[in-house]
Design a protein that fits this description.
By secondary structure, this protein is α/β, with parallel strands linked by helices. It has one domain: Rossmann fold (3-Layer(aba) Sandwich). It is 30% helix and 15% strand. The protein has five helices and six strands, in the order E-H-E-H-E-H-E-E-H-E-H. The chain has a six-stranded parallel sheet, with helices on both faces. Helix 2 packs across helix 3. The radius of gyration is 17 Å and the shape is globular. The C terminus is likely disordered. It comes from Paenirhodobacter populi. One of its GO terms (molecular function) is hydrolase activity. Keywords: Hydrolase.
Length: 191
C-alpha cells in the first residue's frame, strides 16, 4: 500500500490536530518533519519535502494550510518526483500575509498527479472561491466542507475520518507513479 506523507502548515499539527490523529491511527502515515514550523523557510521546506518523497516514492501527499501550498510548489517545480496523488486541505493564501507571504506566489498550473482540494466557505486563510479556482487551475477536484473554518483544531477538527475517505478515493483513481516491472520484462536487456 502507498505511504501517506502528512505535510503540516505553519506552526505544525500537534495533538489534537487531525493530522496528528491520522499519524497515530494509520500505519501507512508518516508526518513530514519540517524545520522551523513557526518560521517557515520556503527553499528549505521544499527541499525537505522533496527529500521525503525521494525516500518514500509513490506516496500520497496530504497537506494542510501552508503544507498544501508547499505540496503544490514541490509538485510544480519537480514534476519528476514519484508521487501518486495529493490531498490539499484548507490551502492558505500567501498574498498579503505577513507570516507566509514569502511562500508565494501560489502555483496556478496543473499538478502532475491526481489531486483533491478540500475547502471551507468561512476559512480565514483563503476565500472559498479562491480555493475552488486554484483547484480548477491545478486540475483537482474541489470538496466543499461548508462552514468548516480552517479545518483545524480551532474549528473543531481533531479526528477527521473523512480525510482518510478522501485519500482512499484519490488512491482508487490514481495509478502507481512508476509501474512495477516484472522480472520477465527485464530479461534480455544488456547494460
Amino acid at each position: 500500500m502507498a505511504r501517506t506523507l502528512l505535510v503540516a502548515g505553519l506552526d505544525g499539527s500537534p495533538a489534537p490536530h487531525w493530522q496528528h490523529w491520522w499519524a497515530m491511527t494509520d500505519p501507512t502515515a508518516l508526518p513530514v518533519e519540517l524545520s522551523t514550523p513557526h518560521r517557515p523557510v520556503r527553499a528549505l521546506w521544499e527541499t525537505e519535502l522533496a527529500g521525503m518523497i525521494l525516500q518514500h516514492p509513490d506516496s500520497v501527499l496530504v497537506g494542510h494550510s501552508l503544507g498544501a501550498i508547499l505540496i503544490a510548489r514541490v509538485l510544480t517545480n519537480w514534476p519528476q518526483l514519484r508521487v501518486r496523488a495529493a490531498l490539499l486541505v484548507a490551502p492558505a493564501e500567501t498574498r498579503g500575509n505577513d507570516r507566509i507571504g514569502h511562500f508565494g506566489p501560489v502555483p496556478e498550473t496543473p499538478l502532475p498527479v491526481p489531486a483533491t482540494v478540500v475547502a471551507s466557505r468561512n476559512d480565514p486563510w483563503m476565500d472559498y472561491r479562491r480555493a475552488c479556482d486554484l483547484a480548477a487551475l491545478w486540475g483537482a477536484d474541489c470538496v466543499d466542507l461548508g462552514n468548516a473554518g480552517h479545518i483545524n483544531v480551532a474549528a473543531g477538527y481533531g479526528p477527521w475520518p473523512l480525510g482518510k475517505v478522501l485519500r482512499d478515493r484519490l488512491l482508487r483513481r490514481a495509478v502507481p507513479a512508476w509501474p512495477a516491472v516484472s522480472r520477465s520484462e527485464g530479461k534480455g536487456i544488456r547494460t
